[in-house]
Amino acid sequence: MSADSNSIRILAVDDHALIRQGIVGLVADQSDMSVVAEASNGREAVQQFRAYCPDITLMDLQMPEMNGLDAIIAIRGEFPEARVIVLTTYAGDVQVLRALKAGARGYLLKNSLHKELPETIRSLHAGKKALSTEASMQLAEHATDDALTPAEVRVLGLIAEGDGNKEIAAQLSVSEETVKGRVRNILSKLEANDRTHAAMIGLKRGIIEF
């Protein structure tokens, strides 16, 4: 993984070796960039960034030991100018916002890498931000939505785990009436038909995770 002095130096972070190999192969076809280091989790990503100081980091989100969001926060805590592109299978608007808030400057879905990755890397290297079309559409679609409160997010997470109102009330040390009120708010804000539908929406948008 050598690079000439003029190429865009890239760190590829993903817990799946096949994904990393695909990225290396894709980048190898570009004359102006090269992969100088790889990592399989967030902790390795921080270590490799310190060692190589890449121009661009390609970061998966769902990884063992330390996830991508925490790795972005850690890297940018030490290197504020670090340029990170999130590569993920999730297009949920809340997930996108979390990544951008953590400091990512690009957000691409893995199914569009061959089409969009090289130009996205070049855009970030030139100082621009870049979101995939799907991510941009998700943000636009939900821009005016009422966000769930932290308490409602906790209730939604327990709903997704299959808990009823009584179990949720016991776990959160609140009354069952309080839980019912939060469930009503959740269904209204997410425009969900029922609890199951609300949980599915929450997972799809990245509001909650399993």
What can you see in these coordinates?
This protein is α/β, with parallel strands linked by helices and 210 residues long. The chain is 53% helix and 13% strand. It is built from ten helices and six strands, in the order βαβαβαβαβαβααααα. It has a six-stranded parallel sheet, sandwiched between helices. Helix 5 links the parallel strand 5 and strand 6. It is elongated. The two termini are 35 Å apart. The relative contact order is 0.11. The model has no long low-confidence stretch (mean pLDDT 90).
Features:
210 residues, alpha/beta, 6-stranded parallel β-sheet, 53% helix
Structural topology:
Elements: E1 8-13, H1 17-28, E2 33-39, H2 42-52, E3 56-59, H3 68-78, E4 84-88, H4 93-102, E5 106-109, H5 113-125, E6 130-131, H6 133-141, H7 150-160, H8 165-172, H9 176-190, H10 195-205
Parallel strand pairs: 1-2, 1-3, 3-4, 4-5, 5-6
Helix pairs in contact: 2-3, 4-6, 7-9, 7-10, 8-9, 9-10
